């Protein structure tokens, strides 16, 4: 996603729930939809259509251009544009009379979003949401942008002006712009994926490290200046790079960059110190003032990053979940102020005035220097100021004036020394204060919660719970992971048609309403990855079996047999103009990047060499990108490294719940081993794994003790039964 400062035609994008629509106005067609974003526009005075054949037929029969508006339910500037323009009666009439107006939730239809965002970026040099694109009746774009104010503002044209110009010159404009459209789309479509073999892993990994090191910001961690995003794909690459370069200066630097970034994020305002979780990004370089939106995919990936870095994972939480196990998509940035008012403000739910803190924490702390109160200590530690701690440049609209975003300014040890107290006493005091503040926040008007449940993001969260649960040996987290996998299989897997579904929704009575939209590549890739992680955490082969089934379907639906790699969406869909392959790891990793490692892991679990070869073909398809700018694909570089260094097969022979088996598993799970597969040989020779890998029958326990084998291509080192000996073997 782009920040508010970097959009070519907008002062911003991202994150907020919409204000209440006028209740008297009857709903338009969007009132029949399930998407929270589309429902937010159901009472606009605009004759909105959802993306579909009805709208296309109307445009063609009436020979009208299409106005396509794309966003998502927690997008701040989407709702600014709604409030300013789509709720305006005059603009609504102009749009409805002269255009076929289509509204798209980008999280429901990422395929549509990718195609037209590609056009906007190619023709304007920028992009973001809301995205506003005008199309011919045959769905070809001829003008595009992002946020438009209702009236001209400085050098930025207003929506009224744009609409007037298009209506006056629609025939001329569409012909004129279609030439540039065709050129832009042709260039994208003709991206060549031609190499027969992947590039050298060592060279690509080193180049990726150098590029990340060049963009690294030493004081506060992270990459590049503000706005600063968490970028977990970068952190996971750096840890994988360290794992194969432990003794080198570069390896040490990679680990230091990772740990410092994770620590500074945990201390900063991007981390919600009261209710936990991480906000979307920081508006400054010090991780202080965030954009307050929370996204499920951030929480999922940061859980894995923190646990991989052996950090305590209590700072990563959920956006919320359904009683049947699915995870909701996002929490809004904006909400109504606690003091009252009808206009939502960014961060209102999360920020604090100094006077609020003093009123909540008035007790004088016994033994504290100078008769300090709980508020004095809390405000010192978290940088709370009476006049507020947000600089004007981080608050262009004045929404945070006099407010404080909590940020850890001192270590607990320094705070304790400042007030003459023990570290234990200060830790207890701060925890108690945060709990009190959490209770106060519960009484504030809550931000909008997008209760859409996406297969892809739930797959990421499945990985998060499985990985964290395995490392911490936390049975509750593992049970939650199993529940999430069960939810995906029950509600988002159409067993009859053998396809994943994109999304489902929380109904009025907490029932689950399923969308008919078929899943996209990321829905398959992220869920498969989650299932593989869940197998390694629980060693229940049913999850491997389903992962294998899903991979077969992914190959059938999305694989490009000519050029290699996977298309993002169904390449046979006639309503999607471009067959795109995502070649960048951004806020979410590219599904091709994830698939490179999925295929390799599955080949080791199933014995299917064709999947190992397919992983190589996928990497070869992106060879040019990997060679030139590996920093654009750090997750794919991890897959390239895994192919190069060969996955270790760690086979534990024993009964799953036996204490000696658990000790060996705990040893494996305590180590960061990015290039491994873990499996349990429990002696059930009729079971799934034994049928896929007959060689497992030759690996047996030594005497009555659980036994570990560390193998490469099932050429195994001598078996070990002692956890410390296994640890030594794994670290060789």
UniProtKB/TrEMBL annotation:
UniProt cross-references to SUPFAM superfamilies, sorted A to Z: Six-hairpin glycosidases (SSF48208), Thioredoxin-like (SSF52833)
Transmembrane stretches, start-end: none
Record domain Spermatogenesis-associated protein 20-like TRX: where: 28-172
Region feature (Disordered): 1-32
Composition skew (Polar residues), residue ranges: 1-19
One GO BP annotation of this record: carbohydrate metabolic process
Coiled-coil blocks: none
Pfam families in the record: Thioredox_DsbH
The name this protein goes by in its record: Spermatogenesis associated 20
Biological source species: Oncorhynchus mykiss (Rainbow trout)
């Amino acid at each position: 996603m782009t920040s508010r400062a970097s959009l070519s035609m907008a002062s911003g994008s991202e994150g907020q729930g919409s204000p209440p629509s006028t209740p008297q106005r009857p709903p338009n067609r969007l009132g029949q939809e399930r998407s929270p974003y589309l429902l937010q526009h159901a009472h606009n005075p605009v004759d909105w259509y959802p993306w579909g054949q009805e709208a296309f037929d109307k445009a063609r029969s009436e020979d009208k251009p299409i106005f396509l508006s794309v966003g998502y339910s927690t997008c701040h500037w989407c709702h600014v544009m709604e409030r300013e323009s789509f709720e305006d009666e005059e603009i609504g009439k102009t749009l409805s009379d002269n255009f076929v107006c289509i509204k798209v939730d980008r999280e429901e239809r990422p395929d549509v979003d990718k195609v037209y965002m590609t056009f906007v970026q190619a023709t304007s040099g920028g992009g973001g949401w809301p995205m506003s694109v005008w199309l011919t009746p045959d769905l070809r774009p001829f003008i595009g942008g992002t946020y438009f104010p209702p009236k001209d503002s400085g050098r930025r044209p207003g929506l009224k002006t744009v609409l007037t110009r298009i209506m006056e010159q629609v025939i001329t404009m569409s012909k004129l712009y279609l030439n540039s459209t065709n050129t832009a789309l042709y260039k994208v479509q003709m991206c060549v994926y031609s190499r027969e073999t992947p590039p050298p892993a060592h060279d690509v990994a080193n180049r990726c490290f150098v590029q990340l090191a060049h963009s690294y910001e030493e004081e506060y961690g992270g990459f590049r200046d503000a706005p600063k995003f968490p970028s977990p794909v970068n952190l996971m690459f750096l840890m994988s790079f360290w794992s194969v370069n432990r003794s080198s200066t570069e390896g040490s630097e990679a680990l230091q960059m990772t740990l410092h970034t994770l620590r500074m994020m945990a201390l900063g305002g991007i981390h919600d110190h009261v209710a936990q979780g991480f906000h979307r990004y920081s508006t400054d370089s010090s991780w202080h003032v965030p954009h307050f939106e929370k996204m499920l995919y951030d929480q999922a990936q940061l859980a894995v990053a923190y646990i991989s870095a052996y950090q305590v994972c209590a700072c990563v939480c959920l956006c919320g979940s359904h009683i049947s196990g699915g995870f909701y998509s996002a929490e809004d940035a904006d909400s109504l102020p606690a003091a009252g008012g009808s206009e939502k403000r960014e961060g209102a739910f999360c920020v604090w005035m100094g006077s609020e803190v003093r009123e909540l924490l008035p007790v004088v702390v016994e033994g504290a220097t100078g008769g300090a109160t709980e508020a004095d200590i809390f405000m010192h530690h978290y940088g709370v100021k009476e006049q507020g701690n947000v600089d004007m440049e981080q608050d262009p609209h004045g929404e945070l004036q006099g407010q404080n975003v909590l940020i850890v300014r001192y270590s607990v040890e320094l705070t304790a020394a400042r007030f003459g107290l023990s570290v234990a006493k200060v830790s207890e005091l701060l925890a108690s204060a945060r709990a009190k503040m959490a209770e106060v926040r519960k009484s504030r008007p809550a931000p909008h919660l997008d209760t859409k449940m996406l297969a892809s993001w739930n797959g990421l969260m499945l990985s998060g719970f499985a990985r964290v649960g395995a490392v911490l040996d936390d049975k509750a987290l593992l049970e939650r992971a199993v529940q999430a996998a069960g939810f995906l299989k029950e509600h988002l897997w159409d067993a009859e048609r053998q396809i994943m579904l994109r999304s489902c929704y929380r109904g009025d009575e907490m029932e689950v309403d399923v969308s008919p939209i078929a899943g996209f590549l990321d829905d398959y890739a992220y869920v498969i990855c989650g299932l593989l992680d869940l197998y390694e955490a629980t060693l229940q082969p049913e999850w491997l079996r389903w992962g294998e089934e899903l991979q077969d379907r992914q190959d059938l639906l999305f694989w490009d047999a000519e050029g290699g790699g996977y298309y993002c969406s169904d390449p046979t869909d006639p309503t999607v103009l471009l067959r795109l392959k995502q070649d960048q790891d951004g806020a979410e990793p590219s599904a091709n990047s994830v698939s490179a490692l999925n295929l390799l892991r599955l080949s080791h679990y199933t014995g299917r060499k064709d999947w190992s070869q397919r992983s190589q073909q996928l990497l070869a398809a992106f060879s040019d990108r990997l060679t030139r700018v590996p920093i654009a694909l750090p997750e794919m570089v991890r897959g390239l490294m895994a192919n190069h260094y060969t996955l270790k097969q760690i086979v534990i022979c024993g009964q799953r719940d036996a204490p000696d088996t658990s000790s060996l598993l705990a040893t494996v799970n305590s180590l960061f081993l990015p290039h491994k597969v873990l499996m349990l040989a429990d002696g059930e020779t009729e079971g799934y794994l034994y049928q896929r890998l007959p060689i497992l029958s030759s690996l047996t326990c030594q005497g009555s003790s659980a036994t570990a084998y560390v193998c490469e291509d099932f050429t195994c080192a001598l078996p070990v039964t002692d956890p410390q000996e296994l640890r030594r073997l794994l670290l060789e």
